[in-house]
Design a protein that fits this description.
This protein is mainly beta. The protein contains two helices and 36 strands. Strand 6 and strand 7 form a beta hairpin.
Length: about 475
């Protein structure tokens, strides 16, 4: 068991909570965020789990819990391109949590057989779903992280260098030498924008290297692929970046796909910790799970620079608003009595002239035998908004969407009740009471981007509420 009695966590810190659900011999870690640390019991903190979700009527929310400090540890940084050996103690990401196991066999295509304590059968896990198991002990990781060993080694080397180079200068060592773990860029057709993990076998002059890939094999699949690559197509492995609760819309990311890391941008944040990622190299948009994404970093003049969130160009914005067949969207209603409501649907067919055929997810035909299909104008369609977790209570005058009559209705909170209940005022001059799980933060789709709506101004609620 890790010693965490001296650990201090602040609001917003990313942590992992240990749960021994099947007895003390099992260790399962759930990602969480600290909501409050200054609780009455000093040995407890209030957290919001990132992968434990309660599904309500039309919405979902993350589970919150008061947990013992002894079962909480910092979120370990992610180690990239990590290969494992027989007998290694690892954590496997399955069922929305990290579970401790042991490598029992190594398979092809970066897959491993992992066995859990007390179970005779193992599971097959891909490399991207594994990490080396570490314990958090009195403020440090055991075994230590690679950068901890590296910094310790560098400190020793620097102390030695000071003694040896007092009267003379020593030529600096090359940054990439034999044995260095690197990533190699591919320029082959169909593989542009991909980086593959490798190890430097030898240097050839000043501008080329012989590398052996970690995940690519020869044509006959009998040995790891070796190749001579140019200096401009090679870089050190990116440093680990602490895991995040959720990647942001338009954020630059790398995606583990087809044995390599592919550069892309988050085009859509979906429910269930999934994302649609756009790849400019192939002009494709594909869906991925949170666990196979990492922060994008650029190697520039010998330094790593974190890729910033960007707004995609006009071509991508146009692609986003074309709503291709199969896109999940929301459709606005202009029918009497339903003005201001948005209904979830899927694009069935593009009709031309800015018209689409959509099939609703919650509206039925008159005879109730099937989901309603009808024609809708592009002006009345928007993408499904990204999920925004909202574990805290909503506030007075906050704009929200309320799930009512099979759709989302824009309203304003005019009264906050006990037990996470609220009175919401609508443009139709109606006032209705809702539970917390039936509300979501209101967002506006403006010029091809989602913008979080602010609270309505003023302290008193007039009959007409500043509606746009």
């Amino acid at each position: 068991m890790s010693h965490l009695s001296c650990a201090h966590f602040r609001k917003g810190d990313l942590v992992e909570v240990l749960k021994q659900e099947n007895g003390p011999s099992t260790s399962t870690y759930y990602a969480a965020k600290v909501l409050r640390s200054n609780v009455k019991q000093r040995n407890q903190i209030f957290v919001e789990y990132q992968t434990m979700i309660i599904i309500g009527s039309g919405c979902q929310k993350c589970v919150t819990e008061l947990v013992d400090l002894a079962s909480v540890r910092p979120m370990p940084p992610r180690e990239l391109n990590k290969c494992f050996r027989m007998g290694d103690s690892v954590d496997v990401y399955c069922d929305n949590a990290w579970q401790k196991g042991t490598i029992k066999d190594i398979l092809e295509n970066s897959k491993y057989i992992v066995r859990f304590h007390g179970k005779s059968e193992g599971i097959v896990a891909e490399q991207c779903y594994l990490r080396l198991h570490r314990e958090w002990d009195d403020g440090s990781w055991v075994p230590p992280l690679p950068e901890q060993n590296m910094s310790s080694s560098m400190d020793m080397q620097s102390r030695k260098v000071k003694l040896k180079t007092k009267c003379s200068k020593r030529k600096s060592e090359p940054m990439i030498g034999m044995g260095t773990s690197v990533e190699v860029k591919s320029d082959e057709e169909g593989y542009k924008g991909a980086w593959y993990g490798a190890s430097v076998i030898d240097t050839i002059g000043n501008d080329e290297f012989l590398v052996q890939y970690l995940t690519l094999v020869t044509d006959d699949e009998t040995a790891p692929l070796r190749e001579v690559v140019k200096k401009d197509d090679i870089r050190p492995c990116p440093p680990p970046v602490s895991s995040v609760v959720r990647f942001e819309l338009f954020e630059k990311v790398d995606v583990w796909f087809n044995e390599g890391w592919w550069e892309g941008e988050v085009l859509e944040v979906q429910y269930g910790f999934k994302y649609k990622v756009y790849f400019s190299s192939s002009n494709e948009t594909l869906e991925f799970d949170h666990s196979v994404l990492r922060h994008h970093q650029e190697w520039n003049n010998g330094k790593w620079i974190k890729g910033k969130s960007t707004k995609l160009g006009a071509n991508l914005t146009n692609q986003r608003t074309k709503f291709s067949t199969g896109t999940i969207v929301e459709v606005k209603s202009d029918e009497v009595g339903f003005q201001g409501a948005w209904f979830s649907a899927i694009i069935v067919k593009e009709m031309g002239n800015g018209k689409f055929m959509v099939q609703y997810h919650s509206l039925l035909t008159d005879d109730g035998t099937d989901f309603l299909i009808e024609e809708a104008s592009a002006a009345d369609i928007r993408p499904s908004p990204p999920h925004i977790g909202h574990a805290h209570p909503f506030k007075l005058l906050e704009l929200v969407d309320a799930w009512c009559s099979d759709g989302w209705w824009v309203g304003c909170i005019i009264k906050v009740h006990k037990n996470l209940e609220y009175t919401v005022y609508f443009e139709t001059a109606e006032e209705l009471k809702f539970q917390h799980c039936d509300l979501r933060p209101h967002q506006e789709w403006i010029d091809g981007y989602w913008v979080a709506a602010a609270k309505k101004p003023g302290g008193r609620i007039p009959r007409q509420l500043f509606w746009r």
